[in-house]
Amino acid sequence: MNFRMIKARIEEARDLSDRRRMARHPVEIGARVRELGAEGFEAKVLNISTTGFMAEAEGDFEVGTRIWLILPGRERANALVRWIAGNRLGAEFAEPISLEGLSA
Model-level pTM? Predict the structure, then answer.
């Protein structure tokens, strides 16, 4: 019987709720979300930070899809869908956005 030594290190458990880089701010903002080159869907942004957002939208998006978030009175923001749960999606902005002037 041959035995081999395996060197391993067990990482201490981390709080997974602290994995975001920036704090999210709860909001309820009507917006539009669309895939690049597509028409898009009405959405409600539920929380937002300079680096990402969570929204409810009836669209058929997939994780890894590039989308535009279009907020009232602002330039559209390019984002990458990171997760989907029912009619909710979470996305990370390609470039940080300013939250100045956003109101719930």
Answer: 0.77
